[in-house]
Amino acid sequence: MATVKHFEDLDVWKTARGLTVLIYRMTEQGAFSKDFGLKDQIRRAAVSAMSNIAEGFESQTQPQFIRYLGHAKASAGEVRSQLYIALDVGYLTKEQFTQAFDLADKAIRQIYRFMSYLESHPESRRISEEQAEYNV
After folding, report:
1. Which of 71, 113, 132, 136 is deepest in the core (most CB within 10 A)?
2. Is the pLDDT of residue 43 over 70?
3. What is the fold, at CATH topology level, of the domain defined by 8-123?
4. Are the CB atoms for 27 and 43 separated by under 8 Å?
5. DSSP 97-125
6. CA atoms of 126 and 61, how far apart (whole Å)
7. What's the confidence (pLDDT) of residue 3?
8. CA 41, CA 44: separation in Å to the nearest integer?
């Protein structure tokens, strides 16, 4: 397995990014676009999932990374919950709901597997400074 140097290379981040874009597009349509409370909340939850993966990666310590992944997983769960509200009040069709729900669920499963991997391989995220130069 190659070492990942940028959070943008993580499949889990790419999935969360796709979820965020999908949520933004869905909330721009029809009555959903006028429900500022739910629209804002579901958007913030999606952005939070994506952002916590990036923030955890950049923390450069494995325990912090795992903690941020936990926050990302919780935010993706929040998106899933809010999708039910959007479906129940008629903002989304069943097909739209299923598409977004499946992507949120995929993100949750990927995050969980990634967390499990990191927890079972504590040596996988050592702090390192490749060829660091400190010129004063």
Report:
1. 71
2. yes
3. de novo design (two linked rop proteins) (1.20.1440)
4. yes
5. HHHHHHHHHHHHHHHHHHHHHHHH-GGGG
6. 7
7. 79
8. 5
